Amino acid sequence: MSELSAPQVTITRISSALGAEVTGVELAGCDETTTELIRNLLAEHLVLVFPNQPLSSGDHVEFASHFGEPYVHPFLDAVPENPAILQVLKEPEDDATFGGEYWHCDISFESPPAAVSLLHAKEIPPIGGDTLFANQELAFSHLSSGFKEMLRGLSAHHTYPDMTEDDERASALHPVVRVHPHTGRESLFVNAAFVSRFDGMTAAESEPILNFIFRHQVQPEFQARVSWRNDALVMWDNRATLHYAMNDHSGVRRRLERVTAMEQSA
Ligand code: SIN
Known about the structure:
This protein is an alpha+beta fold.
């Protein structure tokens, strides 16, 4: 394609806290120049929304693998086409959403934890089923210097629900303040789905501080909201964001497919 007829890339921010919609790129089979552009945009906006990306399972996993090793989940079923694609499904009769009603990042119970998740929309309800995101760099930056300094000295145990810290497949210890490997920025790295105590403290001792952080880290001012359309691909940086799927579409099917690319070992 000549430069003159190349589609124009447009970037439109979706909230002042984080997130941008990107049009004019084709993710299936994208080249290294486009991948580098997307890496830079993700570092800047933390959540990227790409409308109208009809991807095969192979395209989805191939694109995800530019951002880290695609993860095969030890406890959840993959789609038949590929062991690295999780089905994110809520049937009309289901009460709970796939992720439960918790703000979380993906796969923080592993070491190293998840880098980037890429969620592709297959069947989206006509109304509802949005995903909320919260910027954890912004959340950290809004703490006092004394509280930040205390958190820099702490680590937390991230454990898969209903599993124990002794189970290596299900539990990992991470610093509470995560330093982004590409940008060097600091973010809050605890979440209500996987963390119930700091290292060296009991759950009861940790609880008041964690409850303060869990409330603080998802304030509306730190958030963006993504409304889905079929074939949209949304990618987010698990190192610096939390997300929450709205449970407001009972009686209607919602189905997406997720690949999570893992952080590389240092
Ligand atoms: C997830 O928690 O990874 C899925 C988010 C969603 O269903 O919107």
